[in-house]
Amino acid sequence: MDKFIVRRKRNNEVSVEDAVRQVEVEQLTEIQYTKADERVDVVDCNQNQYQENTSKSLTTPPRFKRYKEQYPWLIIKNDKGFCTDCTDACERKLVINLITREVQSKKAWVDDGFSNWKHGADRLKIHSTTCLHLSCIEAVLNVAKTNVVQQISTAHFKQMMDNRTALLKIFSTLKALAIQGLPIRGDNNDERSNFMTFLQARAEDVVELKAWLQRDGHKWLHHRSQNEILELIATTVSMEIIEDIRNAEYCSILLDETSDVSRIEQVSVCLRIVSEDLTAKEHFISFFSTSDTKAKTLFDLVEEIFQKFNLPLSKVRGQCYDGASNVSGNISGLQTRILEKESRALWVVRIKSLKTVRDNYAQLMQFFHDRSAMSAKASGFYDYMESFDCTFYLNMLIEMFDRIEILNKDLQKMNLSVIESYEKVGAVTDVLNASRDSKFEEIWQKSVQAAEDLEIDEPRIPRQRKIPKRLDTGTTTNVQFKTAKDFFRKSYIEIYDQLISSLRRRFENDSAQFFKLLERSTMSQDRLNNIAILHVYREITDKLDLEKLLNQFISRKAKRTAIFALRT
Description:
This protein is α/β, with parallel strands linked by helices. 57% of the residues lie in helices and 8% in strands.
C-alpha cells in the first residue's frame, strides 16, 4: 500500500532544488558584498534631502537597483528604506488627519524606515498604491501647481502696476496742460497735439509709459477718455470750492452773458463770499449755454445752480449785473425775481441813481430836514448832505462812473468780441489815468460852487483822530495838511488809484488772458468748463492727490480693474 501513498512536503521542509538555489544566491551575495569599491548612492537627486555617498550596508537587498528603477521614490538610509514622496509631504505638513492604517504606513516609510526586505517586492508594490502615498504625491503636485500660479499672478500684478504708472502720467500731463492754459489738441491733429508731444517726451524717462504707448489696443488716449479724466479732476476741485461757499454765511451773485465764436449764448456765473478772516473771494462756478437770455431763463438757471450744489437762496445778499433790462428790470427782471425769493438780495446801485441825487440835492435836503425830528436816520442823512464831503465825493464818483458806464454798455454789444472788449477796457483805463492827473481842479471848483449855492458847510480839514494803542504799530505817521484842498486831493488820488487797480486785476490777470483764448475755441461745453475750472483754480488743482483720482477712474468699469492695479 505504501507505493500508492503520496507523501506531502511539510511547511518548514525545503526541497533539494530550493536548497541548492538558496546556496547559490548566498554565495553570489557574499561575492558582491566583498567588493570594497561598491557603494550605494542613497540620495535622491530630486529631493536633495539626504547626504551623498552613504556606504552600502550588508543588509541592503541585492535587488535594490531593480527596486530603484521600478520605484524612483525609494531611498536607503541607515540600512532602511524610505519613501521620498511621503517624507517630503509629511515634513512640509501637506497631509494631516491620517487614519489608523495611514499612520502605520507613515511610521514604516517615513518615521522608522522599512527593513522587511524578505517581502520587499510585495511591500513596495502595496505602498505605492496606499492612500497615504497617493495623497502625498497629489499634495506635492498641488503645491508645485500653486507656485506656478503665484508666479503668473505676481507677473500679472507687476504688469498692472506698470499700466497704472502709465495712466498716472496721462493724468498728470492733462492736469499740467489745463493748469498752464495750453491747448490739449493743438491744430486738430492728434499725433502732433500738445498732449501727445508731452507724453512722448516724458516716455523717454518713464519706461512704463514708453511701453504703454507702444502697446496694441486701447490706451485711454482718446478724446472721450481725456474728457472723462478732465471731468473727474474738475469735479473734485469744484466740490472744494462749493464747500468753501457753504461755509460762508452769505454770498452775492455775479452774472453776465455773452456769445462765443459759434454764436452760442454763454452765461458766466460767479459767487462772491467773505471768509472768516474778512477776505473777499470771487469763485467762478461755470459757463452755461442758454437758448436765450430772457429774465425767466436766467432766473431758472440761477435756481438750478443753487439746487445742484445744495445752496439755499436765503444766503444771497447781493446781486451784480449789467444794465440790460432782462436783469435790471423793476417789474420782471432777474434782480426783481430774486428779490421775490430773498428780499435781502440787494441789487448794486448804478450811476443813474447818483446823478438823480445830484440834480435833486436841495429837495432831498429839505425832505430829510422835515423828517429829522421824527427819524434819527433821516437826521443823519441830512447832517451828511449838509457837509462839503458829500458834495465833493458825489461829483467825483459821477465823473469816475460815467466812464465805467460807457464801458458797461459797450461790453453788452452782441457783435463785440473778447479781443475788442479788452481793447475797450484798456482805453477806459487810460482815460481814468488821465483824469486822475487832470480832473481834480475841475471837480474841486464844481463842488465849491455847489456848496455856495446850497449854502452848506465850507471845506475843512477833519479833526485828526488818535490811533488806539492796540492798533498802533509805531510805523504810522500822521500827515499834516496845510489846506483842506490838499486833504481832498489826497483822497481823490487814492480813490482813483483803487479803481484803476481793480480794473487791472479783473481784466489783466492770467485767468482773464486765458478766457481771451477761449473765444476762438471749438471745444465742447463740458470740456470748456472743466479746463476753465482747472486753470482758474490752478493752486488747488496742483495739490490734488492723483492716486485717489486714479482709483476712482479705474473703479468705474470692470475692464479697467483688469488692466490697472488699484492702490490702497
